[in-house]
Amino acid sequence: MKIIRSATHFGSSKKASLEICRQVLIKKDSVLGFATGSSPMEIYKYLIQYYKEGLVTFKQVTAFNLDEYVGIEKTHPNSYAYFMKDNLFSHIDIDINKCNIENGLADDLEKECENYEKAIDSAGGIDLQILGIGTNGHIGFNEPSDKISAKTHIVKLTQSTIDSNSKYFSDMQMPTKAITMGIASIMKAKKIILIASGKEKAQAIYDSVYGEITPKMPASILRLHPDVSVYVDDEAGKFII
């Protein structure tokens, strides 16, 4: 792992966004893996800025989202499909038909998982995957477990994840299940960027970088990948540098 530390989350996000831009400038038809949540939001603001300044185009980019809630409409403000459209896709020139997000309302969720995995493979795999990290070390919705869930799968969310995310649900009860890319799906990406901010993420970052490599700390498995960059602010990185 390469640890890139900045004083603030804005600094981390700008550095990470520049790495994403480099990827797209080098390979215009890059396949990018996107994450949701508060951690990557500043990255997306910078990507929008660079696009509006004419520094980068996303016309040929294909996108795959890490995860989506089960049982929620894509048009619902708390769906991850809505999040990506609202915070990035509707502000850049990406082809919306190339923006792939799991369907949490599919009649056959297992088949949806299989088809999503096939779609990633058909696109040639993910060139660069963006990740956040949960306070319990989860990446995507791969929660701490005794075993690795390799491919895209359905997951029951832990109480800590529900507690962290339920604040975003004001008009409905937060879903308790999600579809997520698996650990092996993530690890097949050619390059991975993980971004974290705030003191509440510090222990998870420390355990991921220095602790035992175990599915009980899912992000620790990233240490087995050949090209991972971890962007942290001073608070998130206070135990590691």
From TrEMBL:
It holds the Pfam family Glucosamine_iso. Residues 29-223 form the Glucosamine/galactosamine-6-phosphate isomerase domain. GO terms for biological process: carbohydrate metabolic process; glucosamine catabolic process; N-acetylglucosamine catabolic process; N-acetylneuraminate catabolic process. Keywords: Carbohydrate metabolism, Coiled coil, Hydrolase, Isomerase. Its EC number is 3.5.99.6. It catalyses: alpha-D-glucosamine 6-phosphate + H2O = beta-D-fructose 6-phosphate + NH4(+). The active site is at D67, N136, H138, E143. Pathway: Amino-sugar metabolism; N-acetylneuraminate degradation; D-fructose 6-phosphate from N-acetylneuraminate: step 5/5. Signal peptide: none annotated. One of its GO terms (cellular component) is cytoplasm. GO terms for molecular function: glucosamine-6-phosphate deaminase activity; identical protein binding; isomerase activity. Residues 99-126 form a coiled coil. Catalyzes the reversible isomerization-deamination of glucosamine 6-phosphate (GlcN6P) to form fructose 6-phosphate (Fru6P) and ammonium ion. Belongs to the glucosamine/galactosamine-6-phosphate isomerase family. NagB subfamily. PANTHER family: GLUCOSAMINE-6-PHOSPHATE ISOMERASE (PTHR11280:SF5). HAMAP family: GlcN6P_deamin. This is Glucosamine-6-phosphate deaminase.
